[in-house]
Every structure is written in structure tokens, then in C-alpha cells.
Amino acid sequence: MLRWTPPSAELRGALHAAERWLLPAACLLCDRAVDHDPADPLVCALCRRRWRSLSEPQCPRCGQPTAGDAGCRICAGWPDALGMVRSAVWLDGGTREAVHRFKYDGWWRLSDSMALTMQRLAPLEDAGLLVPIPLSGRRRRTRGYNQSEHLAKALARLTGLAVDAGCLQRVRESGSQTALSPQARRANVAGAFAASPAAGDRLILVDDVFTTGATLVAASEALKSAGARAVVAVTFARARRLLG
């Protein structure tokens, strides 16, 4: 089982210093000059403040902002395998640009800025293993990395939790989810994951964007079938609610 623990503070400091020597001290999103902040070197504080947090109250299970006692249509049909899910910010404006650069432009170091925004999400408050949502082999070869794995490792550095990047595998290409309805998304990822035995562990799925929860549900079902004690999830951003 592949479990990753955060590097030492000394090594992190050396790596940040080397990066700042190679890269200009400018925000990746707005190009304004920024201070040499070893905790968050790529996105300025102003851009981070523009990332809009989800409002309260939220559905106790899936974290979708709700109108008081109204029933939640997002997680009403979820199986018991997936517990609490929380997201840090809405996917709009500068957040959308950050996610695009993170996933498609090679800027995996944006994971540090995203993790800073996510570190106080409720599923991270208790002990557990961080499990990144895996990419298909084709997508990983195309991008050169798995953005969710980098996000999990950034969260590990902030929380002290370990990362298990080996207990969940994607065993089927699922195709793009972008233009699919919620029902089609669930069918698209059904059976897409397999898991190694994880009996007794509390697992925290990590992904960049929550849209309908279909990917998280499919992954959680695989992990529970493999023996996980509990499965919860965190994401950086959340797309606006889709109906249907």
C-alpha cells in the first residue's frame, strides 16, 4: 500500500526557496507582485479573498447550501457508502481560472493555495487517510500528473494526515463528464473504480471539483466494498447546482 507522509519543514523550506529563485514573485492569476511567502508562493492574498466560500446553512451530508429545512436534491439518492462531503469555494471567476490552470496548464503547485482554503473543512478535523481520486492511465499520461494527488499531498503538509494513493484505482475509462446530466454522470462512472483492502480505515476522498457527487459516490462504493470503515470527502471547488 502506497502511503505518503509530508516531508520535513527543512526540506519544504529549501524547495520553496529554490522555486522562488527560479520563478518571478508575481501572482499566477493577476500578475501583481507578491511577497516571498513560503506558505503560498503562487497566488496573492487578494485573489484568494475573491474565491467565494459556500454560504450557510449547508446540507449536513453533502455540504450543498440549502434554504433552511428544504430537502436536498443533490444527495437524496446517494448510497450509504459516502458520508459527509464539504467544498471550500464556488467554481466561478478566478476560482474557475485557477482550476483550469491547475488541471490543464501544468501548474500543479497551485495545490498549495487551494489546500490553504480547504484545510478547515469538517471532514479533515478527525483522523483518517487522504485518498486522491485517481485519473485514468490515458489522462495521467496526457497531463503528466494527477491534480487530486497533488491536492491531497498539499493537505497532508497542512494537516499532518497521511496520503494513501494506492488503495483506489480507476479500472475503466469513463469519458468526459462536462456535458452530462446528473443521471448520466452516475451511469458514466458506475464501476469505474476498484479498491484494495482498507478494512478499519477512515478514508477522506480528495478531488478538485464537486459537480453532482457522482465520482465521489462511485469511489466510495469501491472503498466500502474493500472494507473501509467510513468514507467522507473534500473538494476545493463546487460547481453551481445542476437540476435534473
Structural commentary:
With 244 residues, this protein is α/β, with parallel strands linked by helices. The chain has a single domain (53-238), classed as Rossmann fold (3-Layer(aba) Sandwich), CATH 3.40.50. The protein has 8 helices and 8 strands. It has a 6-stranded mixed sheet. The protein has a two-stranded antiparallel ribbon with strand order 5-6. Helix 7 packs parallel to helix 8. The radius of gyration is 18 Å and the shape is globular. 40% of the residues are buried.
Q: Which outline best applies?
A: globular
Task: Report the major sheet.
Answer: 6 strands, mixed
Calculate Rg over CA atoms.
18 Å
Compute the average pLDDT: 83
The largest sheet has its strands arranged as 1-4-3-7-8-2
The CATH architecture = 3-Layer(aba) Sandwich
Helix content: 25-40%
| Number of H/I helices | 8
Helix/strand-derived category reads alpha/beta
CATH fold annotation: Rossmann fold
Estimate the strand proportion.
Answer: 15-25%
CATH first level: Alpha Beta
* H/E topology pattern: EHHEHHEHHEEHEEHE
Q: Work out the count of structural domains.
A: 1
Number of strands: 8
Distance between the termini: 39 Å
Low-confidence stretches are: none
